[in-house]
Write a structure and sequence with these properties.
Oligomer: single chain
Strand content: 5-15%
Strand order of the largest sheet: 9-1-10-11
Number of strands: 11
Bound molecules: ligand V47
Helix content: 40-55%
Structural class: alpha/beta
Radius of gyration: 21 Å
C-alpha cells in the first residue's frame, strides 16, 4: 500500500480487510485508480463480500460522497404484446391473449394527466415488440406526452425497441433518431441488454437482438447526442465469467462514446415465467453484483439500486456497496410485479427522501440528466453541480 493511503485510517482498514480476503492487490489497484482486468473481476466473486463491498463503497464515496440521487418519475408500458418470447419475462402477451393491451396515444396522455398534480420530471416509457405498430405510433405517443406535460423528460425505448422503430420506418436508426428527438425523446433507458453472452441468449432469448447489436445500437444513440443507461439481468443461468464479459463490453463502449450515465444491475425475478424453476439471486448476491459493477465500471458515473426490484431495505444497504442512485417514485411498475416483485408499485417522494436519510446518506433529487432539482446539502457545489438548487418540501 502506498504511503499516502497508509495515512488514511479508512483506507488502511479497507486494505486490511482486502488482505484478509486475498484481494490486497486489487485494493492497491483501486486506490491507485488503475482499471481492474477481467481476471480481477472474476476474483471479486470469490472474495469475502464485505471486503469487496467496502472497496466499492470507497469508490462510491470518492465519486459522490454521501450524495444519493433519486427522481420523481412515472413508468408507462404502452404495450405488453411482444414477439420476442424471452424465457425470463412475465410481462409479455401474444396478440389476442387475455390481458394483452396496446395504449392509444390518448391513453398514454391520460396516464400523464393523472400525475399532473405530482412534481414528476421524467416518464420512463418502454414496452414489448409488437410489429403491427407503425412508425407514426411511436412519434404520436412521444408527442402525446409532450403536449400533456411539456416540461417532462421522456426517457423511452430500449435498444431493441429502437431497432424495431427503425425497421418500421424502413430507414437507418441514425436517420430516425432526430425525428424521435423532435417528437420529444430525451434519452434512452438501459433495459433489454440481459446478458450479452451468445450462450445465454441462445438458451433464454434467442429471438432477441445479440449483445453486439445492443451495443452497436447504443453507440448510434450516443452518436446522435443522446444519453442512455445500461443494465445486466443477473441471477439466472449466466456464469460469473459471462457477467464480467458483459461489464467489460459496456466499459469498452463507454471508453469510446461516454454516453452511458448509469448502470443498473437487474436481479432476475422468477415468478410467472419459463425460468420459474430457478431460485433467483439472494440479497447477498445482489449486494455483490452492486459492488462488482462499481469496481469494474470505472468510467460510468452512477450505479443504480433499483428499489422496486431489490426491496427498500436491500436498496438501502446497496448504498453502502457501491450504489449512489435509487431510481424514483415510479408509479405503476408492471415488468417486475408480473414476475413476482412484492415491493410497492410507487413510493411517495417524501418517503424516498426519508429512507435515503435513514440509510445514512444525503438525498439529492435530480432530473434525468443529473441536474440537481433539490437537495438540502451544501456540499453539492464541491462535487461540481452547477444547477440552481431549488427548495422543495421533502
Ligand atoms: O429489459 C424482465 C428486465 C428490464 C424480468 O434505465 C426482468 O433507468 C427481472 O431496464 N426479472 C426492464 N428482470 C427494466 C429496466 C430498467 C428499470 C429501471 C430503470 C431503468 C433505467 C431500466 O427488466 C428488461 C429486462 O431485462 N426483466 N423480466 C424478470 N422476470
Amino acid at each position: 500500500m502506498k504511503d499516502s493511503a497508509m495515512k488514511d485510517p479508512v483506507m488502511e482498514q479497507i486494505h486490511r480487510d482486502a488482505s484478509a480476503a486475498g484481494i490486497a492487490d486489487l485494493a492497491d489497484k483501486v486506490f491507485a485508480g488503475e482499471r481492474l482486468t477481467r481476471e480481477d473481476g472474476v476474483r471479486l466473486y470469490g472474495a469475502d463480500l464485505h471486503a469487496v463491498g467496502a472497496l466499492a463503497n470507497w469508490v462510491r464515496e470518492q465519486k459522490h460522497g454521501d450524495l444519493t440521487y433519486f427522481n420523481v418519475n412515472q413508468h408507462i408500458n404502452y404495450t405488453n404484446i411482444c414477439n420476442k418470447l424471452c424465457r425470463f419475462c412475465a410481462f409479455q402477451r401474444l396478440p389476442g391473449q387475455e390481458g394483452a393491451y396496446v395504449m392509444k396515444p390518448e391513453e398514454v396522455a391520460q396516464k400523464i394527466t393523472e400525475q399532473l398534480g405530482e412534481p414528476v420530471t421524467e416518464v420512463h416509457m418502454v414496452a414489448g415488440i409488437y410489429p403491427k405498430l407503425p412508425y407514426e405510433y411511436y412519434l404520436d405517443i412521444l408527442r402525446a406526452v409532450k403536449e400533456t406535460r411539456p416540461s417532462i423528460h421522456i426517457k423511452a425505448f430500449t435498444m431493441i425497441e429502437l431497432m424495431q422503430i427503425a425497421r418500421r420506418a424502413k430507414r437507418p436508426l441514425s436517420e430516425v433518431l432526430p425525428e424521435l428527438v423532435e417528437a420529444g425523446l430525451g434519452s434512452c433507458p438501459g433495459g433489454g441488454a440481459e446478458v450479452f453472452s451468445d450462450r445465454v441468449r441462445d438458451e433464454g432469448y434467442d429471438n432477441k437482438n445479440t449483445g453486439h447489436e445492443w451495443l452497436e445500437t447504443a453507440r448510434t444513440v450516443h452518436e446522435a447526442g443522446l444519453r442512455s443507461n445500461c443494465t445486466m439481468l443477473h441471477g439466472h443461468i449466466e456464469t460469473v465469467e459471462e457477467r464480467i464479459d458483459h461489464l467489460d463490453r459496456l466499459r469498452l463502449l463507454q471508453d469510446e462514446t461516454g454516453g452511458f450515465q448509469t448502470y443498473i444491475p437487474l436481479s432476475f425475478h422468477p415468478a410467472n415465467n419459463e425460468w420459474s424453476h430457478l431460485p433467483g439471486p439472494t440479497a447477498l448476491d445482489e449486494l455483490r453484483e452492486m459492488a462488482v459493477s462499481r469496481l469494474m465500471l470505472d468510467n460510468i458515473n452512477h450505479i443504480k439500486a433499483y428499489w422496486i426490484m431489490l426491496s427498500i431495505p436491500v436498496a438501502q444497504m446497496a448504498l453502502s456497496y457501491g450504489a449512489d442512485d435509487v431510481d424514483g417514485t415510479v408509479v405503476e411498475e408492471k415488468i417486475y410485479h408480473e414476475a413476482g416483485a412484492t415491493t410497492p408499485q410507487k413510493v411517495k417522494r417524501a418517503e424516498l427522501v426519508q429512507w435515503i436519510r435513514d440509510a445514512g446518506r444525503v438525498p439529492v433529487e435530480r432530473d434525468t440528466l443529473y441536474e440537481v432539482v433539490w437537495s438540502d446539502d451544501e456540499s453539492l457545489a464541491s462535487v461540481g453541480h452547477s444547477a440552481p438548487v431549488a427548495a422543495v418540501n421533502g
